[in-house]
Amino acid sequence: MRIVATPPALHRGLACLIGILGTLMANKLPLLLTGLLMVLGCLAVQGKLREFARFGWTVLLPIGGILIFIWGFVQRSGPGAEKSVEDGILFAVLTTLRLALLGAIFLTTVLTLSPKRLTHLLQTFGIRGQTLAVVVSCLNLWSDFHFYIRQVYVARCARGLMPNRHLVTRMRQLPYAVRTLFISALTYSLERAKMWESNDLISRLDRLSKNASATEECSRLAGFLLLTLSIAWAITSAIYFFKTGWTLPHS
After folding, report:
1. Residue 244: which pLDDT band, with cuts at 50, 70 and 90?
2. Which residues have CB under 8 Å from 180's CB, separation 6+?
3. C-alpha distances out from residue 225 to 5, 21, 30, 38, Å
4. Contact 55, 107 (CB under 8 A)
5. How far apart are CA 206 and CA 123, in angstroms?
6. What is the model's pLDDT at position 214?
7. CA of 59: how far to CAs of 113, 125, 145, 187, in Å?
8. What is the DSSP letter of 216?
9. What are the residues whose beta carbons fall under 8 Å from the beta carbon of 239, sequence distance 6 or more?
10. Which comes out higher in pLDDT, residue 238 or 177?
């Protein structure tokens, strides 16, 4: 018999909010690394490391490279710091790690929820009606972006504007893809909202999560452990934050 160790949706939501608060206050490199390792351990238990690796390769790596180039070799300093390449690179690394930790926390606590439990979580925090439909629709934007950006690349390859599909080539084409990407995603989102309203899906979303807790088993112990880790992380970050403030570490 399989042992169910899934935290309840409410515990996940609270842990997500507390973890995000702690991440925003974290201003030390070892602290961010420790928090990231903790969340990666949770992802390993959930079997979601591959999804995070894909996120790191497609999002974090390009952003980190751009930040290091801008702050380390163009600005040559962090915000409010003296001219120093080391400070600029350190600020870029801290920002990238903070983004990685935020993404990992969101993946661990929210994106691993089933649709019913996710709807139940949003309703628990008072999100209902049309607002609930908008939030649920926004969670599908990444798949929409992926679809439309592939269409842009295929079209530009067909016109001979892209010699290959290597990572560097795709990054160079990104400015051309952004306009089409957001216009297409916005248009499709508006059409989806109208379709949901015409099919009475908004009212059905309000009834979707009523039996979510009865149909899916949860572990309150796992939820307690997840909350304990997030609270400990937030308290530690707050202690360092109020001791040193939002400044770049020099050691």
Report:
1. confident
2. 148, 151, 152
3. 11, 18, 22, 12
4. yes
5. 8
6. 47
7. 22, 29, 13, 24
8. S
9. none
10. 238
* Threshold 0.85, pTM exceeds: no
pLDDT digit string, tens, across residues 181-227: 667 766 766 676 667 666 666 666 666 555 555 445 667 788 888 88
* Whether 22 contacts 236, CB under 8 Å: yes
Residue 159 reports pLDDT greater than 90: no
Helix (H) or strand (E) holding 153: helix 141-158
The domain limits of the chain are: 1-114+218-251, 125-215
Residue 170 phi/psi, 5-degree rounding, is -65, -35
DSSP 52-121: HHHHIIIIIHHHHHHHIIIIIIIS-S-TTS-S-HHHHHHHHHHHHHHHHHHHHHHHHHTTTS-HHHHHHH
Whether the CB-CB separation of 184 and 148 falls below 8 Å is answered with: yes
Residue 133, amino acid: A
Tokens of 23: 């991440």
Place of tokens 């030390």: 28
What number of residues does the chain have? 251
